Amino acid sequence: MKKITDSGITDFLFVVFLLVSCNVIKAIPGNFNNSFTLNGRWKLESANTGKNLVGATIDVSAIASNAVVVDKSDPQDGIKPGQALWKQISADGSSISVQVLRPENRTAYMPATITVLNADQIKLAAGATDGTPLVQTWTRVIE
Hints:
mainly beta; Lipocalin; 2 domains; 1 helix; 8 strands; 15% helix
């Protein structure tokens, strides 16, 4: 049987200390990017185009890599509950990219970028075919 040495215990404790320190840093307010998750329910608070979608809620799932409409206020816009509003969600460092349903064509998707404003608010921005960029602000629904 191998004997555990003092240096082995010291090394082990040092590694544990580093791991605990990293978790403490993540918990510091204002350092939300390290622990931010897009998963959950989000509500559209504002939009410069497709305003009839304001008030809609979506469920975001990293496993499915999409955001599905749960509820919306205007049934005339052609979007149905269960329809994917965002697809192909991916994160690369501090950038989150998605394919978002086009406001002027509810069957096609276009590339967009999500900016984290804080732990419970994001901004989605994309170009549009009519020359007007799509800008939406979403707020996390806390139940």
